[in-house]
Design goal:
Layout lengths: L2 H29 L4 H30 L24 H13 L5
C-alpha cells in the first residue's frame, strides 16, 4: 500500500465519521422537541457517536493494514520522523521545508 493510498483512506474514514455524526445530529434534532433538552441530548449523542465511530473506523482500518504490516505507517527515511527538524540549523530547516512542499500532493 502506497503512502498516497494510505492518506486517501484516512480522508475517507474521516469523511464517513463526519457524515455519520451529521446524520445522528439531524435525526435527533428532527425527532426531539426543540429546546434545552434537545440541545443537551444532541450534544451528548454527537460526542458518543464520535467516539464509537472513531473506534470502529480505526479498528476496521487496522484490520485492513494487518496483512500488509506496519511498514506502511512507519517512517522510511530519517526526514519523516516527527522530531527530525528540531536539531537542524535555520538554513537546513528552510531547505527541508521547501523539499517537503515539493513532495505535497496536489489537490
Amino acid at each position: 500500500m502506497t503512502r498516497s493510498l494510505f492518506t486517501q483512506l484516512m480522508h475517507y474514514r474521516n469523511i464517513l465519521v463526519a457524515v455519520a455524526n451529521a446524520g445522528i445530529t439531524w435525526i435527533v434534532l428532527i425527532i426531539a422537541p426543540l429546546g434545552l433538552f434537545a440541545v443537551i441530548t444532541c450534544t451528548v449523542l454527537v460526542f458518543v457517536s464520535s467516539i464509537v465511530f472513531g473506534i470502529v473506523g480505526d479498528r476496521l482500518f487496522l484490520s485492513f493494514l494487518k496483512p500488509i504490516g506496519w511498514s506502511v505507517i512507519q517512517p522510511r527515511r530519517e526526514t519523516e520522523h516527527l522530531d527530525y527538524g528540531q536539531s537542524l540549523s535555520q538554513s537546513e530547516q528552510s531547505s527541508l521545508h521547501s523539499e517537503q512542499q515539493r513532495n505535497l500532493p496536489k489537490w
